[in-house]
Amino acid sequence: MIKAVVGANWGDEGKGKITDMLAQKADIVVRFQGGANAGHTIVNKYGKFALHTLPSGVFYDHITSVIGNGVALNIPILFDEIKNLTDRNVPMPKILISDRAQIVMPYHILLDAYEEERLAGKSYGSTKSGIAPFYSDKYAKIGFQVSELFDEDTLKEKVAKVTAMKNVLMEHLYHKPLIDENELLDTLHTYRDMVAPYVADVSTFLYEANKAGKTILLEGQLGTLKDPDHGIYPMVTSSSTLAAYGAIGAGLPPYEIKQVITVCKAYSSAVGAGAFVSEIFGDEADELRRRGGDGGEYGATTGRPRRMGWFDCVASKYGCRLQGTTDVAFTVLDVLGYLDEIPVCTAYEIDGQITADFPVTYKLEKAKPVIEKLPGWKCDIRGIKKYEDLPENCRKYIEFVEEHIGFRITMVSNGPSRDDIIYR
Ligand code: GDP
Predict the structure, then answer these.
(1) Do 54 and 165 reside in the same domain of the chain?
(2) What are the tens digits of pLDDT across the range 14-70?
(3) Is the peptide bond before 234 cis (omega within 30 degrees of 0)?
(4) Ligand 1 near 37 CB (within 6 A)
(5) Same domain, yes or no: 302 and 371
(6) Based on the structure, what is the number of domains in the chain?
(7) Are residues 132 and 281 both part of a single domain?
(8) Is the Cβ atom of 41 under 6 angstroms away from ligand 1?
(9) Which of these three, 151, 177, 197, is where a domain ends?
(10) Of 9, 52, 215, 309, which shows the fewest CB atoms inside 10 Å?
(11) 17 C-alpha vs ligand 1 centroid, how far in Å?
């Protein structure tokens, strides 16, 4: 059985927690896209962890953690992350790295930073993890596959070719120090020795596992609105954030993805630039940010304060639809317990027209939120285990959202830890 856990919005919906929770009853957790540019926060018996590259099943002995071919693999970061776990008494996870995954090169990270510097105020809000240059090179067919580390002659030749190309940019566009070919080759040899014990033919492994009846979780990063095709282009990420891409980024048959659990947070947050219709500002935003998530809404990778907003039914309905949602996991609901009234964005007004359909970017930039207010429940709902035990106004909020997004909320998360979950 293959299930995907993906985000409906801008990311940071709480996918890590839901994946960690579902991993209790799974065998394999797979990352299929993205890189170390975003992070999941997980709270468990070992403490609180921010994961950037490792799948959110690494805390269980019974799980095999897989880095799929669709991932932008930053090798030093992956190994730092593993060390950070083992240093804190987490048993060494079982890890497989796809031989077809491509490698984030040191110059991708440099080029990302140089480009942001060059664009100055007009930048895309990159986390400078090298993700955009990485995927550009992948599609320009000058990326390095993990498998290529093990073919010395080809590697050497390719390093020479790519260094020559990149150095044109370094010298003439960015006016920065040149890449040294030999140093780069040495780095790649180090990378080869690091990954060697973990490299595998991942798609075959997953195919066999699925045939043998294992449960496989595909763990998405970010959310629909950051998808390069269906998101708020160009303020998007560089690899598809949709469950459908799980088939490609892990090497699985698309029809085998039987369940798509789309994670939706009970309010909105976003990082980086781009239209955010239900955004709030000032004290109202500060309070939600401070109370949000588990210890405030600040980036797991960058520490940047997240932009805050009320729940956006228009964006979430669209976000769930594009994911092919079978189940919605509605998260971080406990945080809203302080509000007398809870504003919800139910439609957009664009050039005087009211719509509940999520538009293309230039129209989105003009959209104004249509807000409805629901009564708050004014109490702490953490610790509640049964849906019927939630306060009536809280259930009404959930049911209101469910009706507007048009997908069934089957899980409600009322706290950061694994057990804070209510099934419906
Ligand atoms: P992800 O990238 O989608 O995994 O999301 P993040 O990990 O960046 O953000 C989710 C944050 O909310 C983390 O700090 C989680 O520990 C926390 N979190 C997840 N679910 C809940 C919940 O139901 N209630 C509260 N209070 N915090 C939650």
Answers:
(1) no
(2) 998 999 899 999 999 999 999 987 777 778 888 888 888 999 889 999 999 999 999
(3) yes
(4) no
(5) yes
(6) 2
(7) no
(8) yes
(9) 197
(10) 215
(11) 6
